[in-house]
Design brief:
Strand content: 25-35%
Shape: globular
Largest sheet: 5 strands, antiparallel
Strand order of the largest sheet: 6-4-3-8-9
Length: 179
Amino acid sequence: MTGSMTTNPYDQIADVPTFTLTSADVLDGERLPTPQVSGIFGAGGSDTSPQLTWSGFPEGTKSFAITVYDPQAPTGAGFWHWAVVDVPVTTTSVPTGAGDESGASLPAGAFQLKNDASLARFLGAAPPAGSGKHHYHIGVHALDVDTLGIDAGATPAFLGFTMSGHTLARAVITPWWEA
């Protein structure tokens, strides 16, 4: 995808200010570590969601959403790897592995939507062999509502649509993986 490294696909949701997002597990612009690669799709990893910490979000933030998106997936619509909704404003980090099937390490009230593989969990990187370097946009979205009012049956694309009028700011780190 042309410009994928310099163009943030989340800007299509809303072009907003940024804040700070860091991870003890993944680094912006660096290759994904093996745990964040997919074992479910046979790419050799363990589908472990990365630890994330954020700060500096704007006053008026009432909740967050967390997403992981690969715009270079050969689908015509990219591929959503993870979507977490209704993260309370009092939460400023999630631990490594919070995106497992149980979601037990997510804060109270937050829940995971099904990703594009129809799994309500984090799915690691697994681009098709020969498809080049894929960039995984890990985003934390600061929202102006306590809840987006969507249910667990919503798709990540619908989450993006719903966030469009409620996003105050967004923090993104973008590691990559190549098969």
